Structures are given as structure tokens and as C-alpha cells.
């Protein structure tokens, strides 16, 4: 088995679809690392936009999803 982690980057639209406001994927590994980002605004007088990662929308509802997958991959 290859040690290359092909699921580190967010899955592309061919792998995961957002339908009816919910992610659909064939495998939980396809959505780990694809944490949605939501624009929450631009500070007054600032030039940058502020985005928030919605960690609660990860498959297990935690930022720990990516590290758990990495630990399992390393053990394999």
C-alpha cells in the first residue's frame, strides 16, 4: 500500500457533492480535511477578509479528525 496520503487535501467535486445542504461522499476519508470555510466579515478599516473553519462540521465533529486519520495511516 502506498504511503502517499491522497485524502489530505479536500476532496474535489468529483468525489464529494454538496446536495441539499449536506455533504455526500462514498467514504468518510473523502471528507476528512475538507473542513468548510465560512466568510464572517471584514474588520472595519481592515483590508483582509476574515474566514472561520467550521470544525464542528468534520465527520466526527472535531479538529481531531485529521490527526486521527494520520495516526491510523502511519500505523498501517
Summarize the structure in words.
The chain has a two-stranded antiparallel sheet. Helices cover 16% and strands 20% of the residues. Residues 1-15 have low confidence and may be disordered. With 76 residues, it is an alpha+beta fold. It contains one helix and four strands; from the N terminus they run ββββα. It has one domain. Strand 1 (17-19) and strand 2 (22-24) form a beta hairpin. The protein has one helix at residues 64-75; strands at residues 17-19, 22-24, 37-41, 50-53.
Concise synopsis of the structure shown:
16% of the residues lie in helices and 20% in strands. The chain is built from 1 helix and 4 strands; from the N terminus they run ββββα. The strands form 2 sheets. A two-stranded antiparallel ribbon has the order 1-2. Strands 3-4 form a two-stranded antiparallel sheet.
Main sheet record: 2 strands, antiparallel
* Succession of helices and strands: EEEEH
Q: Tally the helices.
A: 1
Classify the secondary structure makeup into a structural class. Answer: alpha+beta
Fill in the keyword field for this structure:
76 residues, alpha+beta, two-stranded antiparallel ribbon, disordered N terminus
Question: Which helices and strands, and how do they pair?
Answer:
Blueprint (H helix, E strand, L loop, with lengths): L16 E3 L2 E3 L12 E5 L8 E4 L10 H12 L1
Antiparallel strand pairs: 1-2, 3-4
Amino acid at each position: 500500500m502506498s504511503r502517499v496520503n491522497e485524502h489530505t487535501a479536500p476532496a474535489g467535486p468529483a468525489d464529494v457533492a454538496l446536495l441539499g445542504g449536506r455533504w455526500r461522499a462514498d467514504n468518510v476519508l473523502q471528507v476528512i480535511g475538507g473542513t468548510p470555510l465560512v466568510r464572517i466579515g471584514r474588520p472595519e478599516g481592515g483590508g483582509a477578509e476574515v474566514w472561520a473553519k467550521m470544525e464542528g462540521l468534520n465527520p466526527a465533529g472535531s479538529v481531531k479528525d485529521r490527526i486521527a486519520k494520520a495516526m491510523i495511516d502511519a500505523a498501517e
